Amino acid sequence: MKKFGIILLLELLFTTAVAKEHSISMDKVRNYIVKSNNITMCYFPDIWFAKSAEERQQVLERWQSNATEKHLLSVYQSLHYPLLVDSFGVENANAIFENQNDLAPYLNKLSQKEKNRVTAKTEQDCKKLWKEVERLIISYPSMPFAERE
Description:
The protein has 149 residues and is mainly alpha-helical. It has ten helices and no strands. It has helices at residues 2-22, 26-43, 45-48, 53-65, 70-88, 90-97, 104-107, 112-115, 123-139, 144-148. It is globular, with a radius of gyration of 19 Å.
């Protein structure tokens, strides 16, 4: 009976640990925001410094229509899925990407200051961040949006 109790306890602990790994927490959302903001600020300043959603959309449209900037759109879009996977795991990233799960309730709990937080402050920080960008692109090459086009 004692062994059975220990097995149940271990199973409960394992199940809880797995559930936490696959859950979306505010800490994971904050880390995702900071990582995404850092990358956007360092490598896509036109998007980062846009003053409105409309202005950001205009930048994306300009990139789409300009042959010399089109690669920026491709790289920018290709980072979305890897950032989600790296932050929340494949299952959650797919659910978010397919609109089956929503980050809005988590984002609504954050202050504007938290939503705009960055940790990359210098050009040197941005250079170090490039290794993270490369890791994301290499680690998560499969992007669902590419399959739909």
